[in-house]
Design brief:
heterodimer; A: mainly alpha; disordered N terminus; disordered C terminus; B: Rossmann fold; six-stranded mixed sheet; four-stranded antiparallel sheet; 9 helices
Chain lengths: 276, 277
């Protein structure tokens, strides 16, 4: 509801001492504490930096990989795989979900296959995709798409069936066609669910791309992790893992921001991230 | 109403019907539902009555007396198992452009602002957007929601949301307004206010109204005629002409005549076993 007045909507009031400044300070303090604990543990246990690097070594490795420019081509490749795979999987999931959500018969006939497909671990079929689509990015896009597909599909189906019966009856009483009911009631009601599915999907897409690259690739962040593993560069691996996490966080935040704009009426997308 | 712009070339069975034709009529209406265990449940048994144009008829009875089913049949959401339904002298089945509906819950679309919610029926029926907008604003004014056009449903109280629902039902200028316990979810004080306002609205629009309620005083206060129904099976047990003044205020509730109507209906319902459940 953030496009309209929010004054007469019940939000849990934030604790009075938690001003925006203090909130930021708190977030920073937790970060510093985590890094410090990490450094202390590594130093206290005397673990070799070849096995478990400290934060300083990882930070240096992150700087190196960016300053040398080594990371960029790989980052673009993986980002492309994530986004293309996400788009493909989300589109297919939404489309099939919209079909199944409209008809109990289609659900009866099709859904068992969808579930069966979902039960197969994608890691296990990834080599097949590489066999079919080759070592370049296409196979990774396809693997990513298969992972994104299911959460979007399942959420779309549930969402399309979430419209209150009264609302649909009312539309029918106003002589609405099934298409009217779908466009004006069912679809908008489904959108918050679809966005919840997309949010899960975008994070899983990062995993999908890396799984694909692990099976066989010539470029990408997953490929880079494997390379550094072979050369026993633990700090370098950590650096790439942190880059991956950063990609995940950025994409997730983007998705939330889009959701807040598109489905502004759904409270699930308005509460938590207010003021951050 | 004369100043209000009308949709062009509106042709409906009700408007073309001549004066003597009732707004709607039930004749020997039966409705049977198949329950989950396979047994037949008789929701309506041999219901017959007719309602003149411009009349405000209320249907009162306890849960399970079939009053909502009756309304849903008239709204075209259910089909009668047997019998005739006529709307403006024509046999009627299925939803009609002549009918506006208000349910107990306002069921507004939370992603549309108030004005766009009122416009929903006009959009469904492909009305001229400019005219529809003007009419929507007119009815929002009539239900006392001027200035709330760009608010969202979540920002309005329950009573205000229900008024939006009423404006929405009126936007296409239906000849028949069907209301299924429209104020059932509101607190008692809001409910009384809404009753008075509904009577004013009726005076200004001249619409035929059928309102279903389980409150006997509400039925008497609003209705020109009260149809009393009893359950098992759902049937009409009494039809009462309410001989109260046409212009009604809340003071009326304390008068002897109002009280005797209410007592009469209560006695009738008790006698037919209506109030035991």
């Amino acid at each position: 509801m953030n496009t309209a007045n929010t004054e007469n909507i019940d939000f849990e009031p934030p604790a009075p001492w938690l001003t925006p400044m203090r909130r930021k300070a708190l977030i920073a303090a937790v970060f510093v504490a985590v890094v410090a604990a990490w450094q202390l543990t590594v130093s206290a246990l005397g673990v070799s930096h070849l096995i478990f690097p400290g934060p300083a070594g990882v930070a240096r490795s992150i700087c190196d990989v960016f300053l040398s420019g080594e990371v960029w081509p790989h980052l673009w490749v993986t980002l492309y795989e994530i986004l293309a795979g996400f788009a493909l999987g989300a589109f297919a999931g939404f489309l099939l979900g919209a079909l199944i959500g409209q008809s109990a018969l289609l659900e009866l006939v099709l859904y068992p296959y969808v579930v069966a497909f979902q039960t197969v671990p994608k890691v296990a079929v990834a080599p097949l995709f590489v066999l079919w689509f080759g070592f370049d990015t296409t196979s990774k896009v396809v693997i990513t798409a298969t992972i994104v597909f299911f959460p979007v599909l399942a959420n779309t189906i549930v969402g399309l069936r979430s419209a209150p019966r009264d609302q649909i009856d009312l539309m029918r009483a106003f002589t609405a066609s099934p298409w009217h009911v779908f466009r004006m009631v069912r679809l908008p009601h489904a959108l918050p669910y679809v966005f919840a599915g997309l949010d899960i999907g975008i994070v899983l897409a990062v995993i999908g791309a890396i799984v694909g690259e692990f099976v066989g690739a010539q470029a990408g962040l997953g490929y880079l992790i494997l390379q550094r593993n072979f050369s026993m560069d633990a700090a370098g691996m950590f650096a790439i893992l942190i880059v991956l996490s950063a990609i995940g966080i950025v994409l997730h935040s983007l998705m939330k921001a889009i959701a807040r704009r598109v489905v502004f009426w759904a409270e699930a997308f308005t509460d938590l991230s207010r003021g951050t | 109403m004369s100043a209000l712009v009308q949709f062009p070339a509106r042709r409906t069975t009700l408007q073309e019907a001549t004066g003597a034709v009732p707004a709607f009529r039930f004749e020997g209406l039966h409705k049977t539902f198949r329950s989950k265990d396979g047994a037949d449940v008789i929701a309506l048994h041999d219901v017959s009555f007719s309602v003149a144009r411009g009349e405000f008829v209320t249907v009162v009875g306890p849960s399970g007396c079939g009053k909502s089913t009756l309304l849903r049949i008239l709204a075209g959401l259910e089909r009668a198992s047997r019998g005739t339904v006529e709307l403006g002298g024509q046999r009627h089945s299925g939803p009609s452009r002549d009918v506006g509906v208000v349910f107990q819950s306002p069921v507004l679309l939370p992603w549309r602002n108030i004005l766009d919610n009122v416009l929903v029926p006009a959009q469904i029926q492909g009305r001229d957007p400019k005219v529809a907008r003007e009419r929507a604003l007119h009815y929002l004014h009539l239900v006392g929601l001027e200035g709330f056009e760009t608010k969202y449903p979540g920002e309005l109280s329950g009573g205000m949301q229900q008024r939006v629902g009423i404006a929405r039902a009126l936007v296409n200028d239906p000849m028949l307004l069907l209301m299924d316990e429209p104020f059932g979810a509101l607190d008692a004080m809001t409910r009384e206010t809404m009753n008075v306002e509904l009577l004013k609205l009726r005076e200004r629009t001249g619409a035929t109204i059928m309102l279903v309620t389980h409150s006997i005083p509400e039925a008497v206060f609003l209705g020109d005629r009260v149809i009393v129904m009893s359950p098992r099976p759902g049937r009409v047990t009494q039809v009462i002409d309410v001989d109260l003044p046409a212009t009604r205020t809340l003071d009326l509730i304390n008068t002897e005549r109002f009280g005797s109507h209410v007592r009469g209906i209560r006695t009738n319902l008790n006698a037919s076993g209506g109030l035991d459940g």
